[in-house]
Design a protein that fits this description.
single chain; 422 residues; alpha+beta; Muramoyl-pentapeptide Carboxypeptidase, domain 1; L,D-transpeptidase catalytic domain-like; 2 domains; twelve-stranded mixed β-sheet; four-stranded antiparallel β-sheet; 18 strands; 28% helix; elongated; disordered C terminus
Length: 422
């Protein structure tokens, strides 16, 4: 975003700031996230599940997102112009009583995590712990209720830096709402999460695995068209060049173990891998296809949608990776945890398809293709900041280093120096 555009956004929204309310800090006291505060560590908020009203989960992207972003921009701009928020000097833990806790209370109140009449105490009590839980959840951090090292780092990111992140994401939100429909799916790449949304309410939230920084996932808007159960995997050229050929060069029997067949052209005859000169192979000549079944790269299902990037949503044979906090392991496609919560929702209006039918087809290992009736729209977006309907701003790491570049949607360039990603 240019400096002129930045000033225009601030000018258009700052005037309305006096009419805007900060997020409701008291609302967090009703959240079930903190009910077990005195009985050990709370459950990680990124658990894949069907959402209930008691979960209090707002969509990451909704028709109101640009307005919510503009209101947050006005708030953060005012905080920045008034000198920002104080730095927290050290890690803090529940039960602490010190001047640093008073600073923490003031810091939390400035973003709406505590009411303004709660900033004078020096005690780190349950109220502060609840506020830190909410802050950690909104930052994508492990919710501990303590100001641990990652939380301290996030708290001390300046208001000006947060403002710049919000400004970078406003055009992305303005683009993304073109994909908002009565039923839609949102994939947030930096958050590595997927939501299904119906009539403005989140139905399910899933952990996902997205593209590595050097093989980034694209941002796009499309519509789900077809599901392939027990699919073949047709290896894209990028994976053929970067992965398959180097491994086959070392050990051609790797292809047989992975049940990958080689064809001379897309519809050509099958070729014996032992007959190929792997040191001088033309990767564009051969087609590599993995048979359905155990070990298939897409496991039980592939979810298709029209796009120019040859990406799709799919199951995975390595579900253990969903437990990682930084889930950037794919070559651009999106792997979905508990994918059949998603397939059942997608096929809800498709005659003959319900949970039991899906289970039977998956267990049969039979190749079955299904055209989707009443297909949901799909948004895959790059959102390092968003604002939910409760007024709170959420932030994530700029894993692809796109903030400040003007990136809105499309195919990002690879980030080759992954060592700096942390």
């Amino acid at each position: 975003m240019s400096e002129l555009s930045r000033r225009q956004v601030l000018a258009a929204t700052a005037a309305a700031f006096s009419a805007l309310a900060l997020p409701d800090a008291a609302a967090f006291a009703r959240s079930n996230i903190i009910t077990n505060f005195n009985r050990g560590r709370p459950r990680a908020w990124t658990v894949t599940k069907i959402v209930t009203e008691e979960d209090g989960i707002w969509p990451m992207v909704s028709a109101s997102s640009p307005r919510l972003m503009e209101e947050a921009i006005a708030r953060y701009d005012l905080i920045s112009r008034q000198g920002g928020w104080p730095r927290i000097p050290r890690r803090l833990y529940a039960g602490t009583k010190s001047k640093a806790v008073r600073i923490l209370r003031r810091r939390l109140a400035m973003e709406g995590y505590l009411p303004r009449n709660a900033i004078s105490s020096k005690r780190y009590d349950r109220q502060v712990a609840q506020a830190i839980f909410r802050f950690q959840r909104n930052m994508g951090l492990k919710p501990t209720g303590h100001v641990d090292r990652p939380t301290l780092k996030a708290l001390n990111i300046s208001a000006e830096a947060r403002l710049e992140t919000l400004l970078a994401n406003l055009p992305r939100m303005e683009w993304a709402i073109k994909g908002v429909a009565p039923r839609y799916i949102i994939v947030n790449i930096p958050a590595a999460q997927l939501e299904t949304v119906e009539n403005g309410r989140v139905y399910s939230r899933h952990n996902v695995i997205v593209g590595m920084p050097d093989r980034p996932s694209p941002s796009l808007i499309s519509r789900i068209s077809e599901l392939n159960f027990n699919p073949y995997w047709n290896a894209p050229l990028s994976i053929v060049i970067k992965d398959i050929i180097p491994k086959a060069r070392k050990d051609p029997s790797f292809l047989k173990r992975m049940r990958i067949r080689v064809f001379d052209g897309y519809n050509g005859p099958e070729v014996d891998p032992e007959s190929i000169d792997w040191d001088n192979i033309d990767p564009r000549r051969y087609h590599f296809r993995q048979d359905p079944g155990e070990g298939n790269a897409m496991a039980s299902v592939k979810i298709n949608f029209p796009n120019i990037y040859s990406v799709y949503l799919h199951d995975t044979p390595t579900p253990q990776l969903f437990t990682e906090s930084a889930r950037y392991f794919s070559s651009g496609c999106v792997r979905v945890e508990k994918v059949h919560i998603l397939t059942e929702w997608i096929l809800r209006d498709t005659p003959g398809w319900d949970r039991e039918r899906i289970r039977q087809v998956v267990q049969s290992r039979e190749r079955v293709d299904v055209k989707v009736v009443n297909p949901p729209s799909l948004i895959i977006g790059y959102f390092t900041a968003w604002v939910t309907g409760d007024g709170f701003a959420h932030f994530r790491d700029d894993i692809y280093r796109l903030d400040g570049t003007g990136f809105v949607h499309g195919q990002p360039k690879p980030v080759m120096d992954t060592a700096r990603q942390g």
